[in-house]
Amino acid sequence: MILYGVHQRFLRHPSSYQRLSLCIQISLLLNHRFSGSSSSLKFSLWKMQSGGPESASPITNRVQSLSSAETRGKHRVHAEVKRLEQEARFLEEELEQLERMDKASAPCKETLNNVETRPDPLLPSTIGPLNPSWDRWFEGPQESKGCRCWIL
Amino acid sequence: MSVAELKERHLAATETLNNLKQRLNQTRRSLLDTDVAGYARSQGKSAVTFGPTDLVCCRTLQGHTGKVYSLDWTSEKTRIVSASQDGRLIVWNALTRQKIHAIKLPCAWVMTCAFSPTGQSIACGGLDNACSIFNLNSTTDKDGNLPVTRMLSGHKGYISSCQYVPDEDTHLITGSGDQTCVLWDITTGLKTSVFGGEFQSGHTADVLSVSINGSNSRIFASGSCDATARLWDTRVASRAVRAFHGHEGDVNSVKFFPDGNRFGTGSEDGTCRLFDIRTGHQLQVYSQKHSDDKTHPVTSIAFSISGRLLFAGYTNGDCYVWDTLLAKVVLNLGSLQDSHEDRVTCLGLAADGSALCTGSWDTNLKIWAFGGHRRVI
């Protein structure tokens, strides 16, 4: 039932698919002790309990982890700045191209011409040639001998 | 560089980007001297008119026990594969309505399926973050299930959409919740190219749909939760050819126009749009309130073989038939006899354009064809 409800929600909110996928993956991982994040958690616990040279006092650990978090944060911001600057270069290129670009009427005209030169079986009026196989959907019995079995 | 200096640089870069976007929007608006409907009216074109029994439901494919999420036709115009919440793929003979295959999936959470160009293989994917390939000629296992021939693993998010590269059973493009699209070599199971992602310019939210250009298979379009569609060249994975702005919500569906120079989109904002790939212009908006005077998200779109008709499924169960040239709704399949009883989630046109298949939350698929008198111009 829980999965069913979750499933319904995922269909209504496409932008939460990724979060849902993560939730399902986490629940799957909980059943597999030696895969993915579970194994790294076990390793961290082992390190804390081992008393070896790499283990340090909890306060030092916290200071070290804050400093490394700050470094990671700087790297992320730096990467984001690079990405923004690259996007800006792309937009500048696009602006330059736009200076020489046709107005919309040109592709509109092309669209109309292309549409009117193709035969279309779903239109009441269309250019030829017609293809007799277009009407195969209305040949022979439609309702009899159809497969009505339910896939269980 | 200090954190403060970095933050300043970030602020400056953001401001530059926003200014550029504004200038781009203004320049684009100045080039929009008309839209398709305005031009068509100026040429004296009138809208397509359908009689009451012209477009009819000629087949109902029953058999799924859950919502239908995706469908695809073969290129030989008779078979359809569908994917459902019941965790199965069914391959149908659309003419006889018979089920040729019923494939139980290893992961029931399937979101997309596709037929290979030769019709011998099927691809599907979903919340397992992988694309599974089935060869329809394989021997079934002891439980009667078709085995997975190849698993394309590597995405870090769900598979929302997949399509085989035309004329090749060996390559496939997927769209994913991890914000990337991937071109796969099915023979090796490896990624050939990744479009977007952490270190490349691309979508900034889940990719929901992909569509390959039927006239030039190196070009494909993607639609995303970031409200944009993007055009890609498979030879250049590092950046999109162009981003297309205009929608105000998730772009749920993209489909190339039959002439290969334009593509359509359907969005959470309730509109469909037509974009030109060469100029980047938004050529037309297709928007109309429904019978309850509200807008409803578009779930899926398809063009007729000439491009004159745009079929759009909506979350309220409507399935509008738009005259693409005059931007008018000329029919609502949702109001016809034998229409679906729930939302239409997927649409697909037969290879010869003679029929449209719709899939729905009501667990059925329906085939629609023209049963009236055809006039030759």
Automatic annotation (TrEMBL), chain A:
Domain (G protein gamma): residue spans on this chain: 78-152
Residues forming coiled coils: 74-101
PANTHER family, A to Z: G PROTEIN GAMMA DOMAIN-CONTAINING PROTEIN (PTHR35129:SF6), GUANINE NUCLEOTIDE-BINDING PROTEIN SUBUNIT GAMMA 1 (PTHR35129)
Gene that produces this protein: GG2_2
One Pfam family per UniProt: G-gamma
Subcellular location: Cell membrane
Keyword Nucleus: no
Keyword terms of this UniProt record: Cell membrane, Coiled coil, Membrane, Transducer
Domain of life according to the entry: Eukaryota
Name under which the protein is recorded: Guanine nucleotide-binding protein subunit gamma 2
This protein's record includes keyword Coiled coil: yes
TM ranges: none
InterPro entries: G-protein_gamma-like_dom (IPR015898), GG1/2 (IPR045878)
From TrEMBL, chain B:
Entry-linked SUPFAM superfamilies: WD40 repeat-like (SSF50978)
CDD domains listed in its UniProt record: WD40 (cd00200)
Top-level taxon of origin: Eukaryota
Keywords: Coiled coil, Repeat, Transducer, WD repeat
Coiled-coil segments on the chain, per record: 3-30
Record-linked InterPro entries: G-protein_beta_1-5, WD40/YVTN_repeat-like_dom_sf, WD40_G-protein_beta-like, WD40_PAC1, WD40_repeat_CS, WD40_repeat_dom_sf, WD40_rpt
Protein family: Belongs to the WD repeat G protein beta family.
Protein's name according to its UniProt entry: Guanine nucleotide-binding protein subunit beta
